[in-house]
Each structure stands twice: as C-alpha cells, then as structure tokens.
Amino acid sequence: WIHPDEHHERTLSAADPWAPRSAYISFPSAKDPDFTRRCPGKATIEVAAFVPWKPFAHWQDTRWRKRGGEYDAAKARLSAHLLTLLETHVPAIRGRVALHELSTPLSTRHFAGHPHGEIYGLAHDPARFRRAWLGPRTPVRGLFLTGADVATAGVAGALMGGVMCASAILRRNVQKAVGRTVPNRSAA
Fold first, then answer.
1. CA–CA distance from 129 to each of 18, 125, 151, 181 (Å)?
2. Which residue of 40, 48, 132, 146 pairs with 165 in a disulfide if CB–CB is 3.0 to 4.6 A?
3. What would you report as the CA-atom Rg of the chain, rounded to the nearest whole angstrom?
C-alpha cells in the first residue's frame, strides 16, 4: 500500500477521482513459482486504487466496451495517473510496461454484479457488521452462503466465509477443530 500520509480518510474524501493518491501495488507473477520459466523476462503488476462510484454513474446505462469516447478518455486519464504513481514508487519499471488494462467500478458492476462497482462486495461500513442476516445461514433449508460477503473482504475474508459455512453445515466449530490439528511450532 502506498499513501501520501497517515490521514487515510482525508486523503480518500479529498481525492480527485481521476487521480487517486493511495494505491495497492502487487506482483501476482512473483507468487507463481513457474512464472519465470513460462514467461522469461516478464512480470505482472497489479495497481488497485479506491475510486468513488459517482464519477462513473454517468455511464451506468451503457454497455461494456461500448461506453463511448468520453469514457475511454476518462479511463486513459486514470490509467496514465496510476502508471505514473506506479513508476514513482517502483522506478525500475519505468518505460518497461508492455501492456496495461484498466477496470473501473463499471467493470466490476458488469462482471460481479455489485451495484456500485464495489470491488469486495458489500460496503465495508459499520452498518455492514450490524446486519443480523450477514452469515452463512439462509431461511431456505439446505442453502448456505460462503465467500467474502459472509465474513469480511479479501482472500482471508473469503477463507473465513468458507470456515463459517462449513461450521454451519456440519453444526460444529470447524475453525476450532482445525486449530487442534495444526502442530504447535513453538513447542518444537
């Protein structure tokens, strides 16, 4: 994660939606032990930034890949900004990006069905965690939910959603059972 300072809420609320100042940078190819053999001299980089829905709402009734020149220009501006942000914090890649692609909240809405392009599903505000229905059980007999929206965002949230779902189906605390089977490394 890169941030201009420790005032995250102020940074997000005051940000130009076309020029975010905070971003997450990741190198997915570095996690694949076979990537360098399959793709020598190459790498994949992911840059994710929070952008509000409102600037994209103008195009919400358009179709994917058919949103028009104004949208394409807005995407190009945002993409250029993110590339500059990336090059500022990872200068070794300057001039070496062969291909880049940008998805927006409209892309997330199109592919994931999240109404306002939320990247991780349900909004992560305090109200989310007060919802009594948030969990693996449903009113439909035999139907259980899993994934990040059952627990919290991200990969770890999706993992916990799976544990919670398995616990509901099996009617026992799967996390506790798994914890008992993991060897205690500190005792070794």
1. 30, 8, 9, 30
2. 146
3. 21
d(CA 184, CA 65): 52
Q: How far is CA 93 from the centre of its chain?
A: 23
- Please write the tens of the pLDDT for every residue from 144-165: 999 888 888 778 888 999 999 9
Distance of CA 17 to the CA centre of its chain: 17
Look up the pTM and report it.
Answer: 0.73
3-state secondary structure of 66: strand
CB 145 within 8 A of CB 158: no
* Separation CA 51–CA 18 (nearest Å): 8
d(CA 85, CA 11): 15
Nearest in space to 54 (alpha carbons), one of 98, 100, 16, 92: 16
Q: How far apart are CA 176 and CA 166, in angstroms?
A: 12
User: Distance of CA 161 to CAs 8, 45, 151, 158, 166, Å?
Assistant: 27, 27, 5, 5, 9
pLDDT digits 0-9 by tens, 42-63: 999 999 998 889 999 999 999 9
Other beta carbons within 10 Å of 121:
19
